[in-house]
Amino acid sequence: MDTTTHEPLPRTTTIKQIPDPLYQRLKASAKRNRRSLNQEMIVCIDRGLQAGATEDGLSPVQRVERLMEHQQGVWVDPDEVVAIIRADRDRDHLP
User: pLDDT of 25-67, one tens digit each?
Assistant: First the structure.
């Protein structure tokens, strides 16, 4: 019996009615990064979806809210809030 696992085939989709300014930016970005337009769109979509996610799956705002709920009126360490915000900003500036 064959126990080899096979990865699912990539999906194909079409993006319609891309505004010309966005298309031009994608095209220029693809050229700069030496990627095809399709590859560039995949990278952009992937980065966009990852931008709001953190290791715990919460947005920075949700993490601060959770921290404040956990403290239940007790002083929240501002350094911890700043660290959450900085980590989110640093993640946004990754290449």
Answer: 999 999 998 999 999 898 888 877 766 666 677 777 777 777 7
Instruction: Reduce the DSSP state of residue 76 to 3 states and report it.
Output: coil
Amino acid in position 58: L
Residue type present at position 72: Q
Residue 30 neighbours by CB under 8 Å, 6+ apart: 36, 37, 39, 40
Please write down the HEC assignment for all residues of the chain. Answer: CCCCCCCCCCCCCCCCCCCHHHHHHHHHHHHHCCCCHHHHHHHHHHHHHHHCCCCCCCCHHHHHHHHHHHHCCCCCCHHHHHHHHHHHHHHHCCC
Q: Which two tokens stand for residue 5?
A: 């696992």
Q: Give residue 31's pLDDT.
A: 93
Which residues are within 8 A (CB) of 65 and not within 5 positions of it... i.e. 6 or more apart? none
Residue 95 has pLDDT above 80, yes or no: no
